Amino acid sequence: MTGESSNGSAEAIRVDGVTRTYGDVTAIDDLSVAIGGGQYHCLLGPNGSGKSTLMRLILGLTRPTSGSIDRPDAQIGCGFQHPNFYPGLSVRENIHIFARIVGADDWDWNQTVVTELRLSRALDREAGDLSGGFARRLDLALALIKKPGFLLLDEPLGALDDVSQTRLLDFLGRYAGDGNTVLVSTHEITEFEPYVDRITVLHRGELVFDRRVDEIPLDGDESLQSYYVDTVLAREGISVDEE
Known about the structure:
By secondary structure, the protein is α/β, with parallel strands linked by helices.
């Protein structure tokens, strides 16, 4: 293993020495990390770093080639880059049907999710006719309906307008503040920086570092995004001066 994880929360998803290969390609290489503790957690890395593969492994959508993943009993909600819902049904029908499937009968919470994600004016529209931004919002709503203790979102800001991005970021911050764990994967942390508690950086399937934000040694006005980019470039043997 190339890096270390020090998240010691008892209520955590624990990835222990996991490797995932596809033929000759190693997507995840001997990775150990813990995700939990009611944190707003950012999984950061360039394209092809293994972020989506790790999310799929955690969710049980694919199996590790070696190693193990321990999941607590808490509900896990997820949202991927490609929204998943019933396109022939309205937004309202999608929410009601999904809520009944997962036993989410807190309709006050469902209304809160609809309001926070700015879906109210689209409730009676057919889901298959939604624009990319509304489709993403519906997918996020379905991930949140069951009040999951762990919420895993793959590039959640994609296709969202600036107002919806701000509302979502703030809502996720409050959701994590209520004791839930939020894990978002992205290659751009700038928008998340005011909210995130912990960062895990992957590069070519390996763990580069896993730290609380307040443990990251930033210089002066250096941003988390700059620190991350410099770290990845150094990993590839490229100095900032060379760039």
